[in-house]
Amino acid sequence: MSTYTYLSELGRGTFGTVYLCEKKHNKMKVVIKEISLENGQLAVARNEVNILKTLNHPNVCQYYDSFKRNNRFSIVMEYASGGNLHDFLRGRRFSNDYLHPNLALNIIGQVLLGLNHLHSKKVVHRDLKTENIFLSGSMKNIVKIGDFGISEILRNDAQANTVIGTTNYLAPEMCDGKPYDMKSDIWSFGCVMYEICSLDRLFDGTISEVVMAIKSGQRKSINVDCYGKDIQKIVEMTTEIDPVLRPTTVNLMTNAIFVPTLSQITLNLGNIAYSRC
């Protein structure tokens, strides 16, 4: 930590503690995730770094550096000053302030672009949720997918088997302990879409209630008068029980509802320079 100044603790999770720090030579704010190596977590830490090194996209939190010190492994990443999407949506829910359709589509589109980049690198996130989607930029209008602590690279069309992630966003094949692939992220993306439009989770309640609801095939509807039937159809497509029936990120990006928004997002993001550590 001699290169960095500790500012505050941002949070604690299963795999480590996250700190807001400042690089001493240029005062640039960064996030440092410290992972204790006492419980054999070195492989987990190195897996996260290996994944982060493969990713380079405006809608994905940028990796800067990693180092080992005092039986702790630290990962230095981009700091998203606008907080996470979950807290942003919660604030809107408390005031019953639904997002304008254009803003909702913009956020959804940026998540889709980031997720497409992950999948193009054969990375399955495995814990895509609003808490792991961050807001950045001076207007908090740049969306970034982060927290790759339980992500995995699937090579040669392989599938994963480990049941891991947050229950409210888990695909049914994961709930059943079946093999899964990138289509499990598509399910989670559909849950995120619903949450952005409804300011509420698609599946909520106790773990057993959530699992039963996920496997039932029943879906709640967004406000189609506000957001349109096409968005509801995409929520339903992405949360098909059978993963084979779910679209890929490429399929979604060519959907007419997304094309104008994605074109504008790509144009805007092209004018944003990456922050270098």
Automatic annotation (TrEMBL):
InterPro entries referenced in this protein's UniProt entry, alphabetically: Kinase-like_dom_sf, NEK_Ser/Thr_kinase_NIMA, Prot_kinase_dom, Protein_kinase_ATP_BS, Ser-Thr/Tyr_kinase_cat_dom, Ser/Thr_kinase_AS
GO biological process per UniProt: response to stress
EC class (word): transferase
Domain Protein kinase as annotated: residue spans: 4-258
Enzyme Commission no: 2.7.11.1
GO molecular function, one term: protein serine/threonine kinase activity
Family annotation (Pfam families): Pkinase (PF00069)
Keywords: ATP-binding, Kinase, Nucleotide-binding, Serine/threonine-protein kinase, Transferase
Binding site for ATP: 33
Superkingdom: Eukaryota
UniProt cross-references to SMART domains, sorted A to Z: S_TKc
Reactions catalysed, as given in the entry: L-threonyl-[protein] + ATP = O-phospho-L-threonyl-[protein] + ADP + H(+); L-seryl-[protein] + ATP = O-phospho-L-seryl-[protein] + ADP + H(+)
Family: Belongs to the protein kinase superfamily. NEK Ser/Thr protein kinase family. NIMA subfamily.
Protein name: non-specific serine/threonine protein kinase
Organism field: Oryctes borbonicus
Taxonomic lineage of the native organism: Eukaryota, Metazoa, Ecdysozoa, Arthropoda, Hexapoda
